[in-house]
Amino acid sequence: MKILLQRVSRAEVRVDGSRVAKIDRGLLLFVGIAQDDDPEVIAPMAEKVANLRIFEDEQGKMNLSALQVGAAILVVSQFTLLADARKGRRPSFIEAAPPDRASAFIDCMVSCFRDMGFEVQTGRFGAHMEVELVNDGPVTIMLDSREILRRQTTID
Fold first, then answer.
1. Rounded distance between C-alpha atoms, residue 74 and residue 61, angstroms
2. pTM for this structure?
3. How many structural domains does the chain have?
4. What CATH number does the domain containing 83 carry?
5. Within a domain: residue 153?
6. Which one of 29, 75, 82, 149 is least enclosed by Cβ atoms within 10 Å?
7. 122 is catalytic
8. What is the pLDDT of residues 50-63, one digit of tens each?
9. Over the stretch 70-125, which tens digit does the pLDDT of each residue have?
10. Any catalytic annotation for residue 80?
11. Domain enclosing residue 63, as ranges
12. Do the domain assignments include residue 46?
């Protein structure tokens, strides 16, 4: 699983010209699910996102988490995060999970965030979406479950 996380002052998703999701201050997550992802990666990745200290405290230092500031979360499925562009000019997406499996993973992740108390909005899975955002900072972080979970295992 790959998550491209952006701290935003606002973000919205439109499908066919109609707004389907909108948040103010919070996190925009572009989420790509790989074919070999295990469902057990969902909860630890959601916890990682929720607890990353990437919001500013009173001194202007990134010292607060999304949980601490009551941030909203907008989750947008994006299989193109799994693109392999090492050969040729056309990226390959064979590492991306099939739509039914990816959709189930996204739904589970959204449930994890809601269970933590977040206001969560979503794009429309499989639709052609227009995503508009104002990146706050800018703060953009790439999270890869293979790297994060490997590090957590070696630390524990």
1. 24
2. 0.93
3. 1
4. 3.50.80.10
5. no
6. 149
7. no
8. 999 999 999 999 99
9. 999 999 999 999 999 999 999 999 999 999 999 999 999 999 999 999 999 999 99
10. yes
11. 2-146
12. yes
